[in-house]
Specification:
Layout lengths: L14 H8 L8 H11 L4 E4 L6 H12 L9 E4 L3 H14 L7 E4 L5 H9 L3 E4 L1 H9 L10 E4 L2 H6 L3 H9 L6 E6 L4 H10 L4 E4 L9 E8 L5 H12 L5 E5 L3 H13 L5 E3 L5 H13 L4 E4 L1 H4 L7 E6 L6 H8 L8 E8 L4 H10 L3 H6 L7 H6 L28
Parallel strand pairs: 1-6, 1-7, 2-4, 2-5, 3-4, 5-6, 8-13, 9-11, 9-12, 10-11, 12-13
């Protein structure tokens, strides 16, 4: 059922789209595209469970491009994404499809001039947007969504995790109910599933898992540190792995922490740059471009800034600040070990982190490595009584137990 199909053989895909894809060496579908395209091209509402990097962008972009007449009122389609970085990536894939086309696509995200962005958006057939900035344009009366015929939520679970549900609800309410809705998420359970049901009408549900045999090879390391030894330990790790490393992504929990960590590393002779949401968009894009090209080998980033970062050359991830939950640990660590390469995810764990990280290790089947580092798995009754010395770190986001092997799809489409 998931066997690749040639785009040229799929009814409803124009020769223009086939040629545009072919010019980029894209001839056949990925599994999620194989499943979704026939029904999406007919205008059926879609619920799709698909991991990041599975090729889902073309699964919704192709039906949008094929179903929007060039003379339709604008904007005709809205694609919501959780981050600016993902907005840029989705834009790039739409631009592949729209080469030499009369259709236009525009980005809407924070950090750029609002009025000039609004002027471009109101003239575009397709808008790819982050929820906060799009709602800002709506509230200011700079954009009207009454002509929208297609509505897509991409990485919907991440949007919910980032607290965007109030914005997405208000945007959805501003779009006519007589529309084509496609909902893509890594999970369709819980809150994501409830919202998907509310946003769609008689949807067809599809699920694609990571293909067998295409697995990441990520080594997970846990290192016990004290507050006073944390920076010195990080420097030792970076220097020890420097010759073997490709690109290294270092995670900080806060924007201020990312700036401080970046300054401290530079002061110790380790060239890094920081990337977080408070930086001007042009600075973020310039920094990311240097990292992608390998001109910058080490990047300090917050969780939000690194979401959507999909680079095959990241060989090392370091959790300088331990994550707040299992989902963030998996998402951060999954930035490495891509395209069949080996990856290393190292987490520095203080006493205050042990309760949360012990649960992460248990959920992912990494207890042996965690305990071997001299760390404790603290029972909840001890943590809540204060005997586990867990400080004020909170417990959040626990789900079903995962395995130590994380399967991945092939190259991103």
């Amino acid at each position: 059922m998931n066997a690749p199909r040639k785009f040229a053989d799929i009814p409803g895909i124009s020769s223009h789209t086939v040629e545009a894809l072919s010019n980029k060496g894209i001839l056949e579908t990925f599994p999620i595209q194989t499943l979704v395209l026939d029904d999406a091209l007919q205008g059926r509402d879609i619920l799709a469970k698909a991991p990041t990097g599975s090729g889902k962008t073309f699964a919704f972009a192709i039906p949008i491009v094929e179903r929007i007449p060039f003379d339709s009122p604008k904007p005709a389609a809205i694609v919501l994404v959780p981050t600016r970085e993902l907005c840029v990536q989705v834009m790039e894939e739409f631009e592949i499809l729209l080469a030499d086309s009369e259709l236009d696509v525009a980005p809407v995200y924070g950090g750029t001039n609002l009025e000039s962005q609004a002027k471009r958006a109101e003239k575009a057939h397709v808008i790819v947007a982050t929820p906060g900035r799009l709602l800002d344009l709506l509230n200011r009366g700079l954009l009207d969504l009454q002509n929208v015929k297609a509505f897509v939520l991409d990485e919907a679970d991440r949007m919910l995790d980032m607290g965007f549900q109030p914005q997405t609800d208000r945007i959805e309410a501003a779009i006519p109910k007589d529309r084509h809705t496609m909902f893509f998420s890594a999970t369709l359970d819980g809150r994501a599933g409830r919202i998907a049901k509310r946003y769609t009408t008689d949807p067809i549900r599809f699920e694609v898992e990571r293909p067998e045999g295409e697995e990441t090879d990520i080594e997970h390391r846990f290192v016990k540190v004290g507050r006073g030894t944390k920076m010195a330990t990080l420097v030792e790790i970076l220097e020890a792995e420097q010759e073997k490393a490709g690109l290294t992504l270092i995670f900080s929990r806060t924007k201020r922490g990312a700036d401080s960590l970046n300054r401290d590393l530079n002061a110790r002779g380790i060239p890094t740059e920081a990337m977080h949401g408070d930086m001007p968009q042009n600075v973020r894009e310039r920094t990311l471009a240097k990292f992608e090209k390998g001109e910058l080998k080490m990047l300090v980033a917050t969780d939000v800034a690194a979401r959507g970062l999909d680079l095959d050359d990241i060989t090392h991830v370091v959790h300088f600040d331990a994550p707040d939950d299992r989902a963030d640990y998996v998402h951060r660590s999954g930035r490495t070990g891509r395209a069949g390469r080996k990856g290393l995810a190292t987490c520095l764990v203080t006493d205050e982190d042990e309760y949360v990280m012990g649960r992460v290790a248990e959920d992912l089947g990494l207890e042996e490595d965690y305990l071997a580092a001299g760390l404790r798995i603290i029972p909840p009754r001890l943590a809540y009584s204060g005997k586990g010395k867990t400080g004020t770190r909170h417990l959040a986001g626990w789900g079903t137990k995962a395995t130590t092997t994380h399967k991945r799809p092939g190259p991103r489409r």
